[in-house]
Amino acid sequence: MSKWENKDTKELFKTITALNNTKQARIFLRDLLTEQEIIEFSNRWKAAKMLNAKISYIKISEATGLSSRTVARISKWLNSGMGGYKKMIAELHHGNSSFGRGLS
């Protein structure tokens, strides 16, 4: 088991999956994270979608404010990570995600 995979992280993931809508996600994540952390995560998600659309690192950095190093790391996770980015991009793009439907 990886260092980050433990009882506490499993409980956090379970809590996140129990959220029923965008409002619940917004208020829970705002209490859990700083405003800057929320912005950082949303920029990483935006970068992953842009990378998937084959947009250049330079344009992604300009649009998100992320460093080219961070964009490269996201690209690595997108292309050879656990598949989470690609799965959610595909599901949200095709409207197949129960997660996406539940968070409206």
Q: Could you please describe the fold and organization of this structure?
A:
The chain has helices at residues 7-17, 22-32, 35-52, 57-64, 68-80, 84-94, 98-102. It is an all-alpha fold and 104 residues long.
Give the topology, please.
Elements: H1 7-17, H2 22-32, H3 35-52, H4 57-64, H5 68-80, H6 84-94, H7 98-102
Helix pairs in contact: 3-4, 3-5
Keywords:
104 residues, disordered C terminus, mainly alpha, 74% helix, 2 domains
In a few lines, what is going on in this structure?
The protein is mostly helical. The protein contains seven helices and no strands. The protein folds into two domains: 32 residues, no CATH class; 61 residues.
User: How many separate helices?
Assistant: 7
Q: Give the overall shape.
A: globular
How many beta strands in the DSSP annotation? Answer: 0
Query: Strand content of the residues, in percent?
Result: under 5%
Please tell me the total number of domains. Answer: 2
How do the helices and strands follow one another from N- to C-terminus? HHHHHHH
Low-confidence spans: 97-102
Main sheet makeup: none
Q: Specify the structural class.
A: mainly alpha
